Amino acid sequence: MKRTGGLAAVLLAAALSVNPGHAQSEKPGVEKLYILNCGEGVAGDISRWSPGVNEGKSMDFVDNCYLVKHAQGWFLWDTGVPDAVAAMPNGLAPADPKAVLWHRPKTLAAQLDQLGVKPSDIKAMAVSHTHGDHTGNVEMFPAVMLYVQKAEYDWPGANNSPRFKPEHPVTKLEGDRDVFGDGSVTILSTPGHTPGHQSLLVKLPRTGAVVLSGDAVHFKSNWDNRGVPSNNSSKDQTLASMQKLSETLTKEKAQLWINHDKAQRDGIKMSPDFYD
Ligand SMILES: [Zn+2]
After folding, report:
1. DSSP state for residue 163 in the 8-state scheme
2. 246 C-alpha to ligand 1 centroid (Å)
3. Are 80 and 133 in contact, with CB atoms under 8 Å apart?
4. 3-class SS shares of the chain: helix, strand, coil, % to 5
5. CA dist., res. 144 & res. 122, Å (int)
6. Could you report the per-residue pLDDT of 198-238, keeping only the tens digit for each?
7. Rounded distance from Cα 191 to ligand 1 centre (Å)
């Protein structure tokens, strides 16, 4: 009887000591995700993104950045159109009139400031790829670790210029990467739009899993029809990456949030509101 009581006491003590720790270990790594306005524009001819479809038609584009609050620190996904564009009354016109003329209704700096987040508070960052509507403000965070695919980093820019400042701290990836080691924020290698394009899987505590597309797809009809833009670096890789994302959505029961899709953006909560 005494032995049994002792055992019960030990089990009770174990239960009491384990439970708080267990609850803590189940605390989600990701706490919140903010969607920031990182540009708005008009595409001159959307058939550039969907060859043979809607030729000559213009379409509104948006550009999002995403700020993730993780227990280990802030993580920024994409940096959008350069903040300097906010001061251009006519916006930033593209070299190719079929491409997107960008405006910056709000700066990234002002939106971070509104949240009380300083650029130096960001623990790590990544860009989906190195087009100017995604890398426009990378150097607002000169000391922040940048996660980028090696294939993207090594891809020669205009006149063979580097894609990033050589002194910017960088982790070059060759495939997927679990950023915080707890499965809550995972960079997915999705080449095709560019040689080292990547997307992001984020597991939110209440919203569930979301995949941030980057430019693996630009708008929903291209996703539904597997449309591949004419200026992508590889059609085969693009289709394989869409298939990978499709399988990820199924496996993780995830939503797909398409960066440039204005119709979708108009239906989601923008910062300072957030998803948790
Ligand atoms: Zn883009």
Report:
1. S
2. 20
3. yes
4. 30, 25, 45
5. 7
6. 999 999 999 999 999 999 999 999 999 999 999 999 999 99
7. 14
